[in-house]
Amino acid sequence: MNKHFNNITLRNLGFPFDFEIFRICSLLNPKENSVMFVKKKKNNKYSNLKEVKNCLIFIDNDLTSEIVKFIDKGLNEVIFCDNPRLEFIIFLNDKIRPNQNNEPLKLKNGSFIHDSFIFNDTVIIESGCTIEANVTIGSGTIIRSGSRILKNTTIGNNCIVDYNTIIGGDGFGLERFDQKIIKMPHFGGVIIEDNVSVGANCTIRSGGMDSTFIGENTVIDDSCVIAHNCIVGKSSIICGCSSLGGSVVLGEKVWIGSGSTIIQNITIEKNCTVGLGSVVRKKLKQGEKVLGNPAVSTLEYAKRESKIKYL
Q: pLDDT tens, 72-115?
C-alpha cells in the first residue's frame, strides 16, 4: 500500500469516524483510506466512488444530488463545500504538512544523504548532491554535482542526472484564500524509468496524487521544466529550455523542439514533432508536425509565413 503520510485517525481531527487516512488520491484513481476532492467537471467519473470506503471526501455543493447516489456515506466522511479543491488544500496544509518533519540529512562522501537511502556500488553520486527520504536509484546511474533528488523519487538503471537538476518537490498547484494564495502539497513523487538522460539545470516536479512519470530511453536536454503530473512516453526527446505544464501527456517517440511550451492538460500522441519555439495549446494526434505560436501544422505555418512575406 502506497502511503503518502503517517496514519491519521479522523476522530482525532474532530470527525465522527474512527478510520485512518494514509494518502491522497484523485477521482480518476480512487483508493481506500484516502482524502480527496470532487469538483463539478464535464464527463467526470463520479461512478468511480461506488467502491470507495474509509475516505474523507470534499465535494462541490452543486453535485449534492448528482453524486450522493454513488457514495456510501456510512463508510466515508463527506463534506460538501463551495470550493472542494481549496478545502482539500487547507486540510493538507493544516493537518498533514505539519507532521511531515524534515529528518536531518547526513554528510556522506561530500553529499547530504538520508539514512534510508541504500547505496549500490554501481551508482555514482558526486559531491554537493542532496538525496532525501524514500529515494531509490538503480544500478549504473550517475547523479552529477549540485543535483537534488527529493522525497518519493524512483530513478531507474543506467540513467544520468546532470549538474544542478532538481527532481521532486511541490508543483505549482495554487488556490486563492481571501487575500492569500496557498499552495497544494504534492505527495505523488517522480518515477524515472531506465536509460533516461536528464540535462543540467532541469526541474522535474512531483505529482500531486500520482507520480510524475518519465518513460525509458527518454532524453531531456538542459534547462527544461517538467511540471507536476506529467507523463512522458518512452524514447521521447525534449530539447533545451522547453517547458511542459501540469498534467501534460506525451506519447512515445515525441520530439519537442528547443524553447517550446506545452500548456497544461495537453496530450501529444506518439511520433509527433513540435518545432522549436512553438506554443502548443491543443491536443496533437499521432504523427502530427507543428510549428509556431500558436502551433499549427508545418504546412499551414509555411502558408502563413508566405502570406506575411508579401504583406
A: 888 899 999 999 999 999 999 888 876 655 677 888 889 999 98
Is the pLDDT reported for residue 1 higher than 60? no
Hey, what amino acid is at 176? R
Q: In what order do the strands lie in the sheet with 273-274?
A: 124-125, 142-143, 160-161, 197-198, 219-220, 237-238, 255-256, 273-274, 289-291, 296-297
pTM of the model: 0.90
Predicted confidence (pLDDT) at residue 149 exceeds the cutoff of 90: yes
Question: Measuring CA to CA, which residue among 306, 245, 248 is closest to residue 272?
Answer: 248
- Residue that has been written with the C-alpha cell 497544461 in this structure: 264
Distance CA(69)–CA(17), nearest Å, equals 20
Q: Omega of the bond prior to 294 within 30 degrees of 0, cis?
A: yes
Catalytic residue from among 4, 114, 186, 228? 228
Fill in the DSSP letter of residue 284. Answer: B
| Count of beta carbons in the 10 Å neighbourhood of residue 307 | 9
Q: Are strands 174-177 and 180-183 parallel, antiparallel or unpaired?
A: antiparallel
Q: Known catalytic residue: 228?
A: yes
